[in-house]
Every structure is written in C-alpha cells, then in structure tokens.
Amino acid sequence: MPRVSPPLACSHASPKTDCSTPLDATETNPQRLDHAPNVASADSTPPDVGFRHSGWTRDRSRVLAGLQRVCSGSRRVERFGDCGRGAWIYADSNDPNRYAIRGSHCHDRFCVPCARSHAREVAAVLELHCHNRRCLFVTLTLRSTDQPLADQIDRLYHAFAALRRRDLWTGAVRGGGAVLEITYNHGRHQWHPHLHVIAEGSWLPVQELRTAWHQVTGDSFVVDVRLASTASDVAAYVCKYLGKPISHSVLGQADVLDEALVALTGRRTFMTFGTWHGKKMRLPIDSTVWHAVAPLAEVLVDAANGLDYALRIIRLLKEPSLCSKAVTPPP
Question: Which SS3 state, helix, strand or coil, does residue 80 take?
C-alpha cells in the first residue's frame, strides 16, 4: 500500500528560463524541512545517484576519473562521487499534491545537474532584476592560440577589465554580468575561451567596440552585440551558457580534461561588474515547510514494480513543463 497520494504537480523553475534535461528538472531545494532525515547518510542506495545522473552517466565517470587524477584524496572528489545520494521525496505541508526532491549536492561546476541548478537560480534572479531595464548581449572572443587554458583565461579577464575602463564602455554601460564559456578545437589542439556579457545601458556601436577590443587584446577583434528583447531573454541567455556542460571534445581526452579541471579550479565563471557588482545571485528563502515522505530509492523500486503511485511521481518529476514556478516581475 503506497504511503502517499499521487502528486499533481511539483515546484521548479520557470519553463522560460529552464536549461535543464528532464532528469535534472526533478531538482528543487526546500530550505525549511520538518524533521528532515540525514539526506547524506553513508548507507544511501545507488538508485539515488543513478536517478540524478542518469542523463550523463558516461561523461560523469570521465569527470570523476579526472578529479581523481588532479586532486586525489580531496573532499571535492568525495563530494562529486556522493552527489545525489540519500535523496528523499518531500511534500509541501500545506499542499499534499506538491512535492520536491532533496539529496546531497556537490555544487561542482563540472557536475551537470548542479551546474544547471545554479544556472537556473542565477537566471531567475536576473529575470527579476532586469525587468524594465535595457540590456545588451555582448560576445567577446580571443584569437585562438597555443597558450595553456589558464593563461588564456587570465588574458581574457584582464582584457575585459581594460575594456570596462574605456570611455566607450563607461559612457554606455552601467553594469552587468559575464559568463565564461570554453571550447576546444580538437583538430588544432587549441582552447577558445570567450565571454558572454549582459550589459545594462545604451547601445554599443559594433565597429567601435571591435576597435576597442582589438586595442586591449592586441590581436582580437571578433565581437557581437545584440539587444535583449525581454528580461526572460536575459535569463535564458545566462542559463544557456552558465549551465552548459563541458564539451565532448574535452571529455574525450584525459589530458585536455585535466587541464580544464586545473584551470577552472577556484576561478569565477560568472562575474558581475559596475552597478551589478555585489548583487546576490540567490533567490529569497522559500517559506514553505516541507516534510519527508519516502526515500527516492524506495519510490524508484516501487515504480520498477509497477505501483501506480510511484509511476506517477516519477513521470511528473521527469516533465519540466509540469514542474513550473512562475517568476513574477516586481511592481
């Protein structure tokens, strides 16, 4: 006999800003839990991890192997390996048809579910912040070289800082945020880091920006400027790049993956500047009181055995469109 009634919906990010896979979309993080069990207990069952990471099992194994090579014995390796263990299903104390899943999270930028969860939260905050604000999408790229990735990222950040001191930039841009994206050219064995920038302010003439970017980099002039139509566009833009997994061209080569792991350790991949500097990229604490219903592993077993209540829970948790939480702009 199932212990819970089948849920009709679950709480999650807005579909407009969702950058998740179906399995990733089961994630929520209730902050107020009534008599919560130890969700990170050592005797957690493997189905918990499998449910959270089933969308990228092979790539996850490669990242874990890379972490074991470059930081063997560190807590980071342990946290990454345990991500998703001890997951429980929770119910809203005031709405028996509203459910969430909570388990251990590693918060590692190379963990796809954790990175996408972080991206969704930042995107939701920015959607609220950018309501009724004029924003631009600016892409800044470096000419590909044979330099190590860490050196190229340092150079990119230094050039961006120099650009923000230019009259062209200070006269047009009040503040904003920037997301680092890295790609790798397998044929040329070259890294290609670039920045995707949200800039609040007036228009930046493309040709003048190209000239200024070439002056601060010395050799690079490829830029792009577009107007963001809505705050939702800004959120989707950030979500797309901040939650983007590392490319297969990197994961497929151990030495290349190891270089990326080392180069990005301790480095910010999302930064704010100007009037946005210091803005907290966290959603307000959810006042909902949650209570534990059942271990996720138990529900998964029941679903595998064909129990209707478990099948419906899993089906609903796998459908991002059903896991929606509207983002309402401020007055």
Answer: helix
Question: Collapsing DSSP states into helix, strand and coil, what is residue 184?
Answer: strand
Rg (CA), the chain: 22
Least Cα distance to 169 among 211, 118, 109, 111 occurs for 211
Please, which residues have CB within 8 angstroms of residue 22's CB and are 6 or more apart in sequence?
55, 318, 319, 320
**At a CB cut-off of 8 Å and minimum separation 6, what does 32 contact?**
285, 286, 287, 288, 289, 290
Q: What pLDDT, in 10s, does the model give residues 15-71?
A: 344 444 333 433 444 444 444 443 333 344 356 677 788 888 899 999 999 999 998
Whether 228 has a pLDDT exceeding 60, the answer reads yes
Please indicate, yes or no, if residue 3 is contained in any of the structural domains: no
Reduce the DSSP state of residue 67 to 3 states and report it.
Answer: helix
Distance CA 200, CA 30 (A): 32
Domain that holds residue 29: 9-108+285-322
Q: Is residue 103 part of a domain?
A: yes
Residues 161 and 265 occupy one common structural domain: yes
Residue 27 structure tokens: 């994630």
Strands 190-201 and 135-141: antiparallel
**Bridge-partner residues for 178, per DSSP?**
197, 271
CB 113 within 8 A of CB 53: yes
Residue 186 sits in a domain whose CATH number is 3.30.70
φ/ψ region of 60 (left if φ > 0, alpha if ψ in -120 to 50, else beta) reads alpha
* Rounded-to-integer distance, Cα 78 and Cα 242, Å: 24
pTM of whole model > 0.85?
Answer: no
Tokens of 15: 């579909």
What are the two backbone dihedrals, phi and then psi, of residue 265, each rounded to the nearest 5 degrees?
A: -65, 125
Judge whether 132 and 193 are in contact, CB under 8 Å.
no
